[in-house]
């Protein structure tokens, strides 16, 4: 599933860009950023006008607002991520029906054909992490995930702006998109540079009428805009050797400080683009005529998550926070060979008490083991 920008590239004006959108809408269910309930969310969209062009998300720890500016892709990423569509919060796995002949089992797989329009580098990196969890590094690949993932068309966008909670440069995966896309957009001066990745992207671009071939100056403009986005972000901490350093601080006293601050509300895990934990519940008909087996998101911050035979293995809030942070920056590296954090900063913005995971990692590294 790699798309590294090989092949011919193009530049579209606004008319050509609208043509591209309409072409994709013919074949896919388009999911893109949209303003809903006062925030930017990935949602179903019917028109380019649905996208929050000219809107900027201003984010700090525990704070988010929107302001109007000039341009098109002026924001970073939505509150939610595309995980919400390929690993949805609730997914029916199976239905059991009781009849005179006995029990009938019905298994149906979701069949939506998505075009994820406007995916940033952090979320594209998160998608590759989920692919490892559910498919490539899983001895039992998940057919439900695969059915939603396999035909997804990815239109990525290079960030030219970063919020105060973004730290993708620290995690080494942004703001420039480098692979795993069909088409890659960089906003220029009233035009859009389109780089072609996977083969299906080339087919789509060749079907458009309103386009011109890219010129060297277009790539210079792209470089300038990406460098500007990089300049917005400071290095949060040193990534090299981080898992081992954190293992050496499993018992340091700083963890206990989080008992006084963290609410264990699960907000961070709900907005995280890589958290994949789930529970299986049975929804039974009142008269026991049928039952549905449903997969629902779970969180390591929930008291029941680590309860075994009525005993909670992580009774303190700080032990749950430690599990979450260590999974992102240490356990995940052992399991899948990559970090479980992509530096999107959502957990920082949407923490109601403003806990900043970058600061927590720094505090842990500074404290003597």
Task: Note down, in words, how this protein is organized.
By secondary structure, this protein is α+β, with helices and mostly antiparallel strands. It has two domains: 10-84 and 113-231, no CATH class; 242-366, no CATH class. Helices cover 31% and strands 23% of the residues. It has 13 helices and 16 strands. It has helices spanning 14-25, 83-86, 121-136, 143-149, 168-171, 199-206, 216-231, 242-247, 254-257, 267-271, 317-336, 346-349, 357-366; strands at residues 10-12, 29-36, 39-44, 55-60, 63-68, 90-99, 102-106, 114-119, 153-157, 183-187, 192-196, 212-213, 278-284, 290-297, 307-308, 311-312. An eight-stranded mixed sheet has the order 3-2-8-9-10-11-1-12, sandwiched between helices. The protein has a four-stranded antiparallel sheet with strand order 7-6-14-13, with no helix packed on it. Strands 4-5 form a two-stranded antiparallel ribbon. Strand 9 (153-157), helix 5 and strand 10 (183-187) form a beta-alpha-beta unit. The longest helix has 20 residues, at 317-336. It is globular and about 65 Å long.
